[in-house]
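Dear colleague,

As promised, here are the two records you asked about, laid out in our usual form so they can be pasted straight into your sheet.

NAME FIELD: protein one
SEQUENCE, THEN STRUCTURE:
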Amino acid sequence: MMSPRECKEKLQELHAIVIVPTYNNVRTLGTLMADLIKYASDILVVDDGCTDATQAVLSTFGFRSVGDNPEAGIGGRTCLRHDTNKGKGASLKDALVLAAGCGWKYAVTMDADGQHYPSDIPSFVEAIISMPESLIVGARNLASENMPARNTFANRFSNFWYRLETGIRLEDTQCGFRAYPLGRQNYSGWYYTSLYEFELESIVFAAWSGISVVNIPVKIYYPPADERVSHFKPFRDFTRISILNTILVLICLVYIWPRNLLRKISWSRIRKFFDDNLFHVKDSNLKLTLSFWLGIFIGLLPFGGYHFVTAVFLAHILKLNTLVAGAFTLISIAPLMPFIIFCSCWTGCLILGHQMPFSGFQMTFTDAGNILVDYILGGIAFAAAASSACAGICAVMLSIVRRKK
């Protein structure tokens, strides 16, 4: 294990600074600083509008205010002070932006409530050296003594949504003990929130930007309930995090998942798929054409969310090619949905003799019902017509390409 002195030297070689946001943690701040200065020479404390003796504690350790001499940067022991309490997210955001602007390449962040051990910083240093482009998140032992039950539930809840939003499985997504690569991400964006949910946002946006997000184990100390200092408000903050996850999932549906799918699509992969699953399989032309028709038909139906599962199930029942049927339901990906919806409504209006476009500003319940009927009936008719036309083209292509066989 790396010694405290070696840790200090490595942090300086890596151009890494330790950031500690604090709000009225005077009971634990002094103990933390006494231990932290053994492992790090460059420390930035963010005083988030503290109303206790935080400044007195920091002065005993020789911290200077960033505002006193801005030209000196934030090397050594410095303090960034907010006049009013802005929230943990705002504190971290301001500190990360300031550190990046001053030329620091990495920022190790830790909480001021005494839960994190500075002796774990060497583990982050080793992780930075081995994974220099990664955002590293501490993974706590959720079975630790005095660990609040709500924390365990909240972390598992957050882990589930994080995996859904990014495809990455993490053991802990809420730990504030982290190492941020400052050159890979801009933390000054307006989309970052100012409270606890910033830490979730930062790792979601990092993953969406192609930054590797990994866990390393860290120790955790939870004092007894009567000694614990926490500014987390369960109902308010849990509600905010839930709303944030809802928004992030919607962004995934509309942009991230279609973007990732389109990035994976290339002409060589498309050709390989057709070669492997259409042109060079033992299935007859008729069976492949019907599988293709089923996938397109189900994919165009106005019943979103279960296209793939429905197509695969029906293909299995009808003894068709399940892979082909399932793959072609992807015609309903997000970029094509506005076109599909328009064609469905237009077809419904054509069948029922209604007028296009609709005027939403004077819409009655009767109008809304008519639109729904137009959309459903038209969607079924459009799906049948479009899939039949596509299947005809598919049959011609198969007869030409597979003629030799």
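NAME FIELD: protein two
SEQUENCE, THEN STRUCTURE:
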Amino acid sequence: MQVFSLKSAEIEAQVVPEFGARVVALVDRRTGRDWLVGGDLEGDVDDAASFLGNEARGWDECFPTVAPCYSLDWGRSLRDHGDLWGRSWTVDAASNDHLSCTYAAEGYTFTRNMTLAGETLRNEYAVMGPARPFLYSQHMLLATEPGEQIILNGIGTLSYGEYQLPWPANNNRIGAMSAAIASKTYAAANGQVSAAVSGPTGSITLSWNAEDMPFFGMWRCFGGWPDAQNPVHQLALEPTTAPADDLAQAVLMGYGPTLSPDMPVKWVIDVSLSAAPTPKNTAMEAHQ
């Protein structure tokens, strides 16, 4: 499969359009660190494909669901982690600092325009299709180190169902594989939002506007999934449209933007790498 590379003096991003336009590497060229979980391109295009430990690599886009479910609005079962991952996208435009790809199926189009400038990779999304609700989540699996810090700004109380997690409460540090935990939590987002991982070798920061993505999901897996024989260590900081694992659940909760056949739904997410640790935001410190 062909790999497209976007490069600046600071960053290199490698993308495989034929495999869900997965970003397979996101490297800080100043330090040599690849911030993404690496591995083979595993998974198939079947509707029954499962997204398990061997498949959980790199950066994918989850649409129109994350967890598998049956959707009355879509009139079909929705695949684990959505329609897009592992399936072929079309390359619309490509250069050293820009890549535009589109996935077109089931009567809708999903386009991601990536533009690299310095240490920031801007991702502009546009989706058009029949009027029906959808769930979107950016799914970037980060290769982190124990002791690195998670820094959240513009993000409310993290919760899972009825359980709320005070932040940071000693859980703002990356755990070791021996922690044997796996959890997915959600929070509301407000204003200009950022979620970052910072450590001695630099930082990665995701930034977006809550008007585009009103929620934040965090997947923390430090040796607790998929099983005791094959545990993985990964973190995902996920801008998302709803605090839900699947579209059917999101609709029941009253969340989910609606597609339009006439006007695209658009949003922007910036991903920035720094060779220096991210300083704590003073407002965040006060909140903590």
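A couple of things worth noting about protein two: Confidence is low (pLDDT under 50) at residues 281-288. The radius of gyration is 18 Å.

Best,
R.
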